[in-house]
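User: Can you predict the 3D structure for this chain?
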Amino acid sequence: MKLKDIKKELHKKLYKKLKNDIKKLRPAQEKAVKAGLLKRKNMLVCTPTASGKTLIAEIAAMQGIYNDMGKTVYIVPLKALASEKFNTFRKKYPDINVGISIGDIDSSEKGLGKNDFIIATSEKLDSLLRHRVSWVRDISTVVIDEIHLMNDAHRGPTLEILITMLKSILQNAQFIGLSATIGNPHELSEWLDAELVIDDWRPVELRQGIFSNGKVKFIDYSNFR
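Assistant: Here is the predicted structure, written as structure tokens:
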């Protein structure tokens, strides 16, 4: 599927931003579009690293913002990742207000509500909800990066409670879960009430080998079939 094939469904500002860098959608991106990404369906995307998951979330987020549906909140597990996403989106979309919230958990950061696109760690967003910040109800798109961390013994409960709270508050919002490693994707997609997008395509072939005496001997898994 080429990007121009969905030109009429994309907001003109978003299409203009994407057309210079993207000519053809990657397999997971095409599957997401066919599963209802542009119809505001919830998505759980389970594909390898560098397979194009972020663009799926980006399209959902920017469609919502450009069509005046509401804000996007992009949930990440690490402060470093939040800073990386913040710099990327702020540079790519200077026409919208991009904010980041990774600081003092006890702060309600009242000025954060002026932003269209908010990137936050799960712990910080959980705190903001508990501070009852008013702008939460203006969210139209929720992206959960590394959603498999719900299974993490330390951070999982906070993320699960956070998603549950957001689903309760934002019954009309679009939820996009992203992960490269989910052991129970069908169960999780059902809980999230999301379309499941699974694909094993990756831009570079993944091979395993052993380095010894200055040489790499790659394992031929065809011998194990």
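The longest helix spans residues 53-66. The domain at 3-203 is CATH 3.40.50.300 (Rossmann fold).
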